[in-house]
Design a protein that fits this description.
Helix content: 25-40%
Low-confidence stretches: 1-34
Strand order of the largest sheet: 13-14-15-12-11-17-18
Number of helices: 16
Largest sheet: 7 strands, mixed
CATH topology of the largest domain: Aldehyde Dehydrogenase, Chain A, domain 1
Number of domains: 2
Radius of gyration: 24 Å
Structural class: alpha/beta
CATH class of the largest domain: Alpha Beta
CATH superfamily of the largest domain: Aldehyde Dehydrogenase, Chain A, domain 1
CATH architecture of the largest domain: 3-Layer(aba) Sandwich
Mean pLDDT: 91
Shape: globular
């Protein structure tokens, strides 16, 4: 296996009650000569916690070469045998759940519990991949007298995953378990902001017993991505990131005849009806916009309040004010992102919004004052045409737009250029059914603030939240990482045959 080396250092702990540990030693074989390295900074402290090599085109070419060599033999291995290392990998991930959780939290800023939950969601995809050995991935049918048609799903060869900072373990695990089990060799290019957890996953893949080159890790930034996209021996790509970059990756790959599924950002709408169950709605809405500090494509950042929802919004504000930094909500990924969020809040106020909850002067956990912190923030009476109502902010900022009826709420949802998720909070089945039928997002929640499908249901949005076709997990993942071969067979002349005979 060829993976980039990494250097891991110790992250400080909270006195008497550690939030984070990060003291792992990378032991994976490196593919890089000594050259420029990328420092990794923890959002919790603003300090360096490690570094990885910055891959150039030559380093990428070496990784692809090893992957190409491994792909042929791996594709010829029966799927029952291809799943054996994945069983071991699953057990290793669960055994090292605490390590993976602390690593992911340290480098991306989320809480340890959130990081562990992300790993466990990735384990669900591993379990789906394990089930593929028992599923018929093709079919056969006698279509005419003496003529039989058969379909087979076959691997593509060398494939690649380009993953974001906000889920260092989960998003990679949405991709490589399915791709590898289907017979491909997989190259993971994690975000240069969060490469250390990917190194831990690579080490677990080594321990699980995968052959050299079946799973590879390539570190780096834009140059590494461009080299992977341009390489003629890489056949397909999964990408998760901002819509702007997703569009660029899709266009670049498609122009070269590559298969690309690029998932982008979102401005997810949560529709709040006046009859919503307060106990159900308030906690779900607060968790949706503050979870992962709002740094996820499924965050509900636009709350469209239908009718008299004043009491519910008061409860939402009160609950959000009690969110504890470092315990209930983590940090912002870096200083630039924090600055953009603070500017967006100021712009929203200038556009006429009412500041219901101001998180711009937070109280960080003791010992973590050097980190990048923003407490939950709520802008109320946001004009529907303002940037805070339309643009993805990617932080713990909730914009509340008030409308008089459900038709107006759906109209706002339709106007969004994004299409990841729409949720509705109501006790009225007819209202819920109307939203489910008419919302344009790819994922719908009814009294669920983060409607991420569970396996085997696939994850994927619509409109500007997805470039390409299909979804990233479940059956969509099977389609993404395979090609469909069709075989028509006839062994002897047949009397009274059709045109096919």
């Amino acid at each position: 296996m060829k993976v980039a080396d990494s250097a891991h250092e110790t992250l400080v702990r909270l006195p008497g009650e550690p939030i984070l540990r990060h003291n792992f030693t990378g032991r994976a074989e490196g593919v890089h000569a000594e050259r420029a390295r990328i420092d990794v900074t923890s959002p919790y402290t603003g300090t360096r916690i490690g570094s990885v090599p910055d891959s150039d085109a030559d380093a990428i070419a070496r990784v692809v070469g090893v992957s190409k060599q491994a792909a042929r033999g791996w594709a010829a291995t029966p799927i029952k045998e291809r799943t054996l290392p994945l069983f071991r990998f699953r057990e290793l991930v669960l055994e090292h759940l605490d390590d993976l959780g602390h690593s992911a939290a340290a480098e991306c800023g989320k809480t340890v519990d959130e990081a562990k939950a992300g790993v466990l969601k990735g384990v669900e995809v591993v379990e789906y991949a394990l089930s593929l050995q028992n599923l018929a991935l093709g079919g056969s049918l006698e279509v005419s007298r003496g003529v039989r048609c058969e379909s087979r799903r076959e691997p593509l060869g060398v494939v690649c995953g380009i993953t974001p900072f906000n889920f260092p373990a989960m998003v990679p695990m949405w991709m490589f378990p399915i791709a590898i089990t289907l017979g491909n060799a997989f190259i993971l290019k994690p975000s240069e902001k969060v490469p250390l957890t990917a190194g831990l996953l690579a080490e677990l893949m080594i321990d699980a017993g995968y052959p050299d080159g079946v799973f590879s890790l390539a570190h780096g930034g834009r140059a590494a991505v461009e080299a992977l996209l341009a390489h003629p021996d890489v056949s397909a790509y999964g990408f998760v990131g901002s819509s702007r970059v997703a569009g660029e990756v899709y266009a670049r790959g498609a122009a070269l005849g590559k298969r690309v599924l690029a998932l982008g950002g979102a401005k997810n709408t949560m529709i709040l009806a006046a009859d919503a169950d307060p106990e159900l709605a308030v906690s779900a809405i607060v968790a949706s916009f503050t979870g992962c500090a709002g740094q996820r494509c499924m965050a509900g950042s636009l709350l469209v309040a239908v009718g008299d929802c004043g009491a519910l919004i008061d409860k939402i504000s009160g609950a959000a004010a009690n969110v504890r930094l470092g315990r209930d909500m983590g940090a912002i990924i870096n200083a630039d992102a924090l600055g953009r969020l603070e500017a967006a809040i100021a712009r929203g106020i200038a556009d006429g919004a009412k500041l219901r909850l101001d998180g711009r002067k937070p109280t960080p956990p003791s010992g973590y004052e050097g980190g990048y912190w923003l407490a939950p923030t709520i802008l109320d009476n946001v004009p529907a045409e303002s940037s805070c109502a339309k643009q993805e902010l990617f932080g713990p900022v909730l914009s509340v737009v008030r409308v008089t009826n459900i038709e107006a709420a759906l109209a706002l949802e339709h106007e969004s250029p994004y299409g990841n998720a729409t949720s509705v909070f109501t006790q009225n089945g007819a209202v819920a059914a109307r939203v489910a039928e008419h919302a344009e997002s790819g994922m719908i929640g009814i009294n669920v603030g983060v409607p991420v499908p569970r396996e085997p249901f696939s994850f994927g949005g619509s409109k500007g939240s997805r470039f390409g076709h299909g979804d990233i997990t479940g059956a969509g993942g099977v389609e993404l990482w395979t090609k469909l071969k069709k075989i028509t067979t006839k062994w002897a002349p047949v009397p009274n045959g059709s045109w096919m005979g």
